[in-house]
Amino acid sequence: MNNEQLRVSIGLPVRNGERFIEQALESLLAQTFQNFELIISDNGSTDKTEKICRAYAAKDRRIRYYHNEQNLGLARNYNRVFELSSGEYFKWAAHDDLHSPDFLLKCVEILDRDPNVILCHSQVRFIDEQGKFLQNYDIQLNTNSPKSQERFHALLGKHLCCQFYGVIRASALRMTSLMGNYAHADGVLLLRLALLGRFYEIPEYLFFLRKHSQQSMSLFFPMYLSFASQQSHRQRNILPDYYQYTVWLNPEKKGQIVFPHWRIFWEYGLSIWLSPLSWYERLDCYLSMFKQLRGTEHLLLKDLLIATKMTWKQVARTKSLQENQKKA
């Protein structure tokens, strides 16, 4: 395939995905839209993932397989598959999710038709470990608005970032800093993309998000299915455990003082500042940010309280160690 004419790059970051990756690969390779490359970055898997991926790469020339000798971390691996891509459009794919055969075709048709749309995705259904239907994802967001501040406001609301697995203009992604190494980085990236252009949701269920015990949402947000309807996500004050999520993303943070909610708040503000907005749009976004996040101040306080407790424990531990050394 001539890379100059390549339309879509699919990036599949994976680590120890032997259980579901064959189904995910079959789903992608069965797409009716054929002009794509599939880039797999294996983040130091210790199971049969490498063997499975190499077997598929040997059979299909559209697949490029890369094996990282060491675990680069989730965010770095997600960014790596994009950095290795060359398509006009880009899509992240998880090793455990499935797609309807016409997912790519319908997304590309929308992006080709309207240059103002920079991300196209479909409606979502949740499936279980056996691939059986669980429920629909019914949260509707106004991300197709022509006004950047309205798209920004919509994505500040509670949602599960399913648009992240849509088809995105690579040129728009290059205008961002990609995935950050902190909790809710996918949501921040969506915000930054929304400030650049519109999202379009295909009114069909073409994407199937698998729920299983080892995925990040199940580990740090076990109630997320209760959050997946338009009505319930507004009524329930439930959020992921961003502390454990931060450590999962970056194991070096274990035992260290982190401020996950402050970091998210900072990244929201930075997103506005870095975006090519007019001063009126920028001010509107800042006002929207404070309005939408009003009532969540306790999360910032929670960060400070946890940091204080950890600091006190460290001081007490150091003092105890010094006293023991004096006695010795």
Descriptive notes:
It contains 13 helices and nine strands. The chain has 328 residues and is of the alpha/beta class. Among the domains are: 1-96, Alpha-Beta Complex (Spore Coat Polysaccharide Biosynthesis Protein SpsA, Chain A), CATH 3.90.550; 260-327. Strands 1, 2, 3, 4, 5, 6, 7, 8 and 9 form a nine-stranded mixed sheet that branches. Strand 6 and strand 7 (133-137) form a beta hairpin. The radius of gyration is 21 Å and the shape is globular.
CATH architectural name of the domain at 1-96: Alpha-Beta Complex
Helix content: 40-55%
Name the overall outline.
globular
Low-confidence stretches: none
Structural class: alpha/beta
If you compute it from the alpha carbons, what radius of gyration comes out, rounded to the nearest whole angstrom? Answer: 21 Å
CATH fold descriptor of the domain at 1-96: Spore Coat Polysaccharide Biosynthesis Protein SpsA, Chain A
What is the highest CATH level, the class of the domain at 1-96? Alpha Beta
What is the CATH homologous superfamily assignment of the domain at 1-96?
A: Spore Coat Polysaccharide Biosynthesis Protein SpsA, Chain A
Characterize the biggest β-sheet: 9 strands, mixed
Strand content: 15-25%
| Structure summary, number of beta strands | 9
Averaged pLDDT, please?
90
> Termini separation (Å)?
72 Å
**SSE ordering:** EHEHEHEEHEEHEHHEHHHHHH
Number of helices: 13
Describe the structure concisely.
This protein is α/β, with parallel strands linked by helices and 328 residues long. It has helices at residues 21-29, 49-59, 74-83, 103-113, 148-156, 170-173, 185-194, 216-220, 232-235, 242-249, 260-274, 279-292, 297-327, and strands spanning 8-14, 36-42, 63-67, 89-92, 98-99, 117-127, 133-137, 167-169, 198-210. The longest helix has 31 residues, at 297-327.
